[in-house]
Amino acid sequence: MFRTFGKDLEDVTWEFNRFCEGNHPCFSGRNGTPLIKFDGSKGTKEMRVKTDEQMGTFYRYSSEIEDTKLVQGSNIRHTNNFDELQDFLNRDENENLVLHQEHIGQYMAIINTLQKSSSMAISDDYANWADNDFHREVAKPLFIDQADYGTQHIFFDDNADEDEDCIVDVRDVITKEIVPYNKFKNRYVVQCEPHRAILEVDYFIKMIEMAEQNRDDEIERIESGMVDPADEDKVEPEVENEWEKLQNASNEEYLMKTVLPVLYQGMKVIDQQRPVAPLEYLALYLLKHQD
């Protein structure tokens, strides 16, 4: 499933479908590349995003779970006002769109669609997240059933950190309660590190295996009646200032906090702009955005 606050779903699904059809230049079987297909041909699994049912749009109006709506059938956002949305859905030409008002209905609609079609593309509600001070409780909703031992959701996002502006709002679909960060970290949500995703060809496979192992360990503790370490009282560490934290950080963490966020953005701009002098361009970009 592809989830985005941006307007890139059309481009992403186009490229993903090219991959599934064996037409992506990196996986086409030409020029030494492997041929990979997931288009339903010759016994392969059909994974393309190609039907209206596989598209959706989330609307969030507050931190209350009852104010989360899912429109299935399109990922084009026509309005951010719920009354206007209902008027829009009542038009005859929009009869293919389905409004899921209850969170359990939204959860089941996603599960059923993925079981049937394997993939989805959903647009999330950036405008209302911004209007609510970028707070976690109005971010991208991820409904999970913690009692379902046969299903595991793993959400990758580079902004899924511990801060209040965490981009993923994890909720238990049965109790409607907010799942705390230490309970969903590296089980249901993985904070993606873009530089590692670029440099390590098996990065996502390793992260999935880690999340699955952590979930298996959690299930084993539950069935054995053991206490989850995430639920144990934590000893408050001695307070360090920011400078001390940086000096005591690992090499990877130090670079992640100081250099890589700006460097990664600069490299993306260079890739898009293709300047004549890329190193000079990058140096100027880093200096300009160092704050």
Describe the structure.
The strands form three sheets. This protein has a five-stranded mixed sheet with strand order 1-5-2-3-4. It has helices spanning 9-20, 82-89, 103-117, 126-131, 181-184, 194-199, 203-224, 242-248, 251-258, 260-273, 278-288, and strands at 2-4, 55-60, 68-72, 98-100, 121-123, 140-144, 155-157, 168-172, 189-191. It folds into three domains: 1-132, no CATH class; 134-234, no CATH class; 243-288, cAMP-dependent Protein Kinase, Chain A. Strand 2 (55-60) and strand 3 form a beta hairpin. It has eleven helices and nine strands. Helix content is 39%, strand content 12%. Helix 10 (260-273) packs across helix 11 (278-288). By secondary structure, it is an alpha/beta fold.
Number of strands: 9
Give me the strand/helix succession.
EHEEHEHEHEEEHEHHHHHH
Task: Work out the helicity level.
Answer: 25-40%
Number of domains: 3
Structural class: alpha/beta
Keywords:
single chain; 291 residues; alpha/beta; cAMP-dependent Protein Kinase, Chain A; 3 domains; five-stranded mixed beta sheet; two-stranded parallel sheet; 11 helices; 9 strands; 39% helix; globular
